[in-house]
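ENTRY TYPE: paired fold submission
RECORD: A
CONTENT: sequence, then structure tokens
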Amino acid sequence: MSARHPLIAVYADESCLGNGKVTATPGGLGALVEWRRPDGVVQRFDLWASEPDTTNNRMALRSVTDTFGALSRKGNALSVRFTTDSRYIVDGMTSWVRGWIARGWRRKEGAVENLELWQAAVDAIAPHQCQWNWVKGHAGHPQNEYANHLATRAAAQQDASDGLIESSFEQWWSDQPVKAGAKRTAISPFPDPAAFVAAPALPASAMARRLE
């Protein structure tokens, strides 16, 4: 399979400062969005947002809804390769959610955690082809590290980009220190549209079941 629509590469991450503590836990999300122009030049855009008291899982889900919401503003169908270090997102979108939908948005063991956010995420991706890609976090992957930087900064500053803005990724990456004797990790190239493998579409009745 190859990309049927214009290909977009997304690198997303989330942060929650003090996740699981009794006190307020501010969080953030960050996304680096890439697309390749017809002349071969890769353009990059940043997106980030925050919440004053949240969890890692909530912010991971918002990384999906906020990013796809921004990508959908012009109404175009896209092929999106979404890379994250969150197994919660990758496993959820490729496996768990299908079973939840089949059971009327219920888990075998009971209620779905963050139900409304999962439903919003399913709605957000519906117009698009999606490929969900996991990458190990904090392992030096340039784009993933930058998404983490955007997320942790948003959590600390409690601000938002209010949509996609011109990215500072290349300058940020060139400013990162490199250990003596080591080489700077190469930026991951823009994915090949011919190698794009979309996840199976979710059941057509997904939104109808959500509204029951």
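RECORD: B
CONTENT: sequence, then structure tokens
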Amino acid sequence: MIDFLQDSAVWIVTGSLLIVGLVGCVLPALPGHLFILLAAIGYRLMVGPSAGIAWWGFGILILLMAISQIFEIVSGSLGTQWFGGTKWGAFGAFVGGIVGLFFLPFGLLLGPLIGAFGFERLFAKKEVKESAVSGVGSMVGTLVGILVKLIIGVLMIGWFFLDIFLIGK
């Protein structure tokens, strides 16, 4: 009975962290990928070496987390350039994305849009319509970045379960 309770507690804690992590991949206020990594680390610490998760498996989780964070930072800038914005617009989207983090949740989308629009107008001397298209591109890039974060979060959770049940055993 005690083993059942311990196993249940381990899975409740691990599952809760994985769910919070997955939600955090979409909500900017939560560091989703970090929660997924913490779920894997916590599982290993609670279960011990018999957990089935290999230490190099943590390296893969960390790599996926790093890729996601890099893509999140540059996605607004890439969207701006994809929609025909200048380097100024891309830089404005980047700056706006960082400033927008302080004004969650709306700052996530509005920061890159305002940054790209403002930098295109002020520094690239673009017309309002061209600047607006650049701003919309940054918003589209940010939304694609959120989708990529979610996909990587699902991949991290999938890797965690693969490592526990197939690879590490």
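NOTES ON RECORD B: The chain is about 80% helix and 0% strand. Residues 2-167 form one domain.
STATUS: closed
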